[in-house]
Amino acid sequence: MLGPRCVVIAEDNFALRKVIVDYLATFGIGAIEAGSESEAWSALMNGPVDALVLDLILSSTWVVLPFLKRIQREPHIRDIPVIVTTAFQIDSLRSSDEGACLVHCSVLQKPYDLCQLRRIIVQAFGKSSESVGSGLEQ
């Protein structure tokens, strides 16, 4: 069995970030909150981190694509699974991704159900959903 897991929740919406962190905690998944790109970067660099949930538009700017490129250049964090959340249409987002930054990311369209997010995180951990938490699906 794998030990405790840690996810960085990079979301500028404070209330949503808190809801996600509290929800994941009920399933034994630890989370580090990040309300900005710099906070997310610090959390990744200070690890250990098992996954990153990253709002596409963090702090009202389009920082995610350059941020993803920055992650890909760092050997010790480039393999961390990234889940990008967005209110944009996923197909149009992928077609506008000229640098192919989203190729290795899971993309979850807002609004999403929290158990959807948890399932994607668990998949990113390489575990079955039954092995994290009690399997309480809403």
Note the topology.
Elements (H helix, E strand, L loop, with lengths): L4 E6 L3 H12 L3 E6 L2 H10 L4 E5 L8 H9 L9 E5 L3 H6 L10 E4 L4 H12 L13
Parallel strand pairs: 1-2, 1-3, 3-4, 4-5
Any overview of this molecule?
- The protein has 138 residues and is an alpha/beta fold.
- It has one domain (5-127): Response regulator (Rossmann fold).
- The protein contains five helices and five strands; from the N terminus they run E-H-E-H-E-H-E-H-E-H.
- A five-stranded parallel sheet has the order 2-1-3-4-5.
- Helix 4 links the parallel strand 4 (82-86) and strand 5.
- The two termini are 25 Å apart.
N to C succession of SSEs: EHEHEHEHEH
**CATH level 1 class label:** Alpha Beta
Label the CATH architecture: 3-Layer(aba) Sandwich
- Biggest beta-sheet profile: 5 strands, parallel
Q: Mean pLDDT score, rounded? A: 81
How many individual β-strands? 5
**What is the name of the CATH superfamily?**
Response regulator
CATH topology tier name: Rossmann fold
The radius of gyration is: 14 Å
How many helical elements? 5
What is the spatial order of strands in the main beta sheet?
2-1-3-4-5
Number of domains: 1
* Measured distance between first and last alpha carbons: 25 Å
